[in-house]
Design goal:
Blueprint: H1 30-39, E1 50-54, H2 61-74, E2 79-83, H3 84-87, E3 103-107, H4 116-132, E4 135-140, H5 152-160, E5 162-165, H6 171-184, H7 191-200, H8 205-222, H9 228-235
Parallel strand pairs: 1-4, 1-5, 2-3, 3-4
Length: 237
Amino acid sequence: MSAGQPVQLPLGIKLRDEATFASYYPGPNATVLAATQAFASLQTPASECCLFLWGTEGTGRTHLLQAACHALADEGGLAMYLPLDELVDEGPLLLEGMESVDLLCLDKLEAIVGRADWEEALFHLYNRLREQGGRLLLAATAAPKALGLKLADLESRLGWGLVFQLQPLDDEGKQEVLKLRAAQRGLQLGDDVARYILSRGARGMGELFAALETLDQASLRDQHRLTIPFVKREMGW
């Protein structure tokens, strides 16, 4: 395999720099994190060719898939990340030859449910990966049997490997995520300020990270630490 950086499609698909295992706060998902880290390491023999992660929005499915790509690339392997909701209209020919990569990460699997051409292509890809010893990391909003796949053989294949459910974080966990992400940006975020952000802003993880991005920029601009009055002023709360 050629080594270096994860393969990027010429379709504007990019990995987020901040999507690493180190920046993922596991909370109740420590077992899932450990399993994904092991699966994404060439140093760990793969006991299964497929790892399936499922959970509701905001549980970090995309983060873990992109972190797996970063981690495997750091080991010199070849990884590919495909968000199927963005690529479904390109057609299943995108999956041709993907068994040649060390790790293939398919996100938003629910986007191809009911599309016979995609389901059949994924079924055959799974078989090729299994034969060649590749690794397939999948993420969706529901477990394989609950997704509503029309191809029964594909549904059964996806259930053969490791299947983990990601649990949402409680408020304390969300505060810890904010503090972790702030620290990685060089910001000091106290418990009181983290609680204030969570109590006054939107509670989804995407919205919380967007608020932190805004506050980071404001803090750099004004050279001001994050306090409740500062946050209140900048966010209009």
